[in-house]
Amino acid sequence: MGYKVVVAGATGNVGREMLNILAEREFPADEVVALASRRSLGTEVSYGDKTLKCKDIEGFDFSGYDIALFAIGSDATKQYAPIAAKAGCVVIDNSSLYRYDPEIPLVVPEVNPEAVDGYIKKNIIANPNCSTAQMVVALKPLHDRAKIKRVVVSTYQSVSGSGKEGIDELWDQTKGLYVPGQEKEPKKFTKQIAFNVIPHIDVFMEDGSTKEEWKMVAETKKIVDPAIKVTATCVRVPVFVGHSEAINLEFEEFLDEDEARDILREAPGILVVDKREDGGYVTPVECVGDYATFISRIRQDSTIENGLNLWCVSDNLRKGAALNAVQIAETLGKRCLKKG
Ligand SMILES: NC(=O)c1ccc[n+]([C@@H]2O[C@H](COP(=O)([O-])OP(=O)(O)OC[C@H]3O[C@@H](n4cnc5c(N)ncnc54)[C@H](OP(=O)(O)O)[C@@H]3O)[C@@H](O)[C@H]2O)c1
Predict the structure, then answer these.
(1) Cα of 182 from ligand 1 centre, angstroms
(2) Is pTM beyond 0.90 here?
(3) Residue 1 CB: number of other CB atoms within 10 A?
(4) Closest Cα to atom 27, ligand 1: which residue?
(5) C-beta separation of 130 from 221 below 8 A
(6) What is the Cα–Cα distance from 326 to 306, expressed in whole angstroms?
(7) Is 316 a residue whose pLDDT tops 70?
(8) SS3 annotation, 132-148
(9) 191 CA distance to ligand 1 centroid (A)?
(10) Tens of pLDDT, residues 26-46
């Protein structure tokens, strides 16, 4: 006896990865249903060696389904998640809609698996922003040892973080720079993304930061510790998949770089690749399709008393979204939900 599972947004970047990961990890599912908008009715998507035909989410009856993995953006989530939750199906949502609701748990299973139990209040669990998810996996074991006071993070975020349209724009614009007549003006992004970097993700806030930067601050506090101070600069880069982060940490206690490396080697979800030689670190193209959060360039920051620097890379469609959502479903299964 397994679970009855819904994947909403099955035609999107994250939804397709959800189906891949459910199959790869042999998630105990008796039935998997693929949903998307009416535009995609009948579109075929892969689930392991099976092919599923997408159904329209509009009018879908969620009753009898145990878990719904949502990746359809905030507007559509606002419309359909309450319907699924009311029908008794636990929604694990990838949008930002519910992340800051105190009654809805925001979960990264390597960091705060026990928070999953709070699903009971609204039948909804939120998945964090992609750049937060990989960062907190790295922060948690170090925080447990030496208490992090402050985080200064700069991100290098791939275009797949902004959906199918982001991927197409980088591809088309790059081609357009070489093929006369095929030039593409920026549409999804605010400036040219091909061979460029853009220090602007999501909308501007009143204090001059962007919503993406604010999300990293608020979500780190909710998942790891409200006392941690975070300042972020989020940058879109012309990489298809894989987010990278340069992270500077200030601790209450001294933490030697060798000890930090050992702690991270033992920590769940992390792979340390840290050789001080040419190529002895991970770059985004190498993390694509992997589950791990890769940590490289671990070194003391001698400009402050208890400082460390590190480089953190992960597949944003996996740990940043689909994998984390499936891990939440697994945690929910272990801790709370009965099968069948
Ligand atoms: N990409 C990332 O790294 C990442 C990380 C964390 C969270 N997320 C979040 O995950 C969600 C999906 O992102 P994505 O990158 O997969 O986007 P995407 O590739 O653009 O796919 C969007 C999906 O949502 C569906 N959809 C859109 N409007 C809908 C509606 N009104 N009703 C039903 N389905 C609708 C689309 O179906 P159609 O094909 O039928 O239009 C498609 O399946 C977003 O909330 C995003 O913020 C993404």
Answers:
(1) 27
(2) yes
(3) 7
(4) 72
(5) no
(6) 36
(7) yes
(8) HHHHHHHHHHHHHHHCE
(9) 22
(10) 999 999 999 999 999 999 999
